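User:
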Amino acid sequence: MSILLISGTSTDVGKTVVTAALAAAASAAGRSVAVCKPAQTGMAPGEPGDLADVTRLSGVTRTLELARYPEPLAPDTAARRACLPLLNLGETVAAVDRLRDADLVLVEGAGGLLVRMGEFTLLDLAAKLGAPVLVVAAAGLGTLNHSELTTSALAAAGVPCAGLVIGSWPTDPDLAAHCNRDDLPRVTGTPLVGAIPAGAGAWDRDRFTATAPEWFPADWLADL
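Assistant: Predicted structure:
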């Protein structure tokens, strides 16, 4: 069993679609997959959240959400404003441990690496689990700084970085995007292991699952 945490350099960089793509690619290789989203914000009870998108795109149905807060804010802020309990590190580690019979457990964070999931950050969770973090980055201006800050924080904490993925590669990339695709590995010292086509989150499941394995190097996927 392997655990991989998925974080972003910021919010809205494509973490959920990357998580779905990894789930689809691993499933296509015959591996059992479970997906955990510790904290979901900006959703009312019963409303489909990020895990519903993962299932819709990948077909993976073993999912686990631990806490949900109605306002679209950082989880700890949203919890306090709603007068709801904050997640703690121990109960989150225990929840992930309950999924260990799957071949691959994917844990999707909220926003960036140091966003408070509750009483802890995704960086804290990765360190406690002893698991690597895959960083999802944007394609355009600003991504070099955000990506280097994120990978530097991982390195300082002694948490392995599994690579960088561009969460939404434009259909018609501009000069900055082209340059960033070359420069991201250079400035971060971390390999670029994927780029998800813009709009892939709106594809139907058949197209998504058939194409997702092509977005990552086969040897990298096999090593997860």
